[in-house]
Amino acid sequence: MAKKEPDEPQVLGFLGVGLDNTDEHKRVTTSESFLLIGGSEETHERMQDAAIRFEESLRMLGKRLKETSPDEAADLLRKVIER
What we know:
Helix content: 40-55%
Largest sheet: 3 strands, mixed
Order of helices and strands: EEEHH
Radius of gyration: 14 Å
Shape: elongated
Distance between the termini: 30 Å
Number of domains: 1
């Protein structure tokens, strides 16, 4: 696999922020590709589910996030969210 040029855009990770928390519980989840913060229990769980499905999809492609183009990463994320 060819190395990316230093000038080439690269996705290093995703930040998910939930803003519907009313119980003042602090929810934080980290993974190889995601940092998820806040949200209600339901919202945070949906963000976690999307993160898991995204990382499983990457594994099935045999890639890591830094090996995907920004467009490819965005398309993959869109697919797992819409599922």
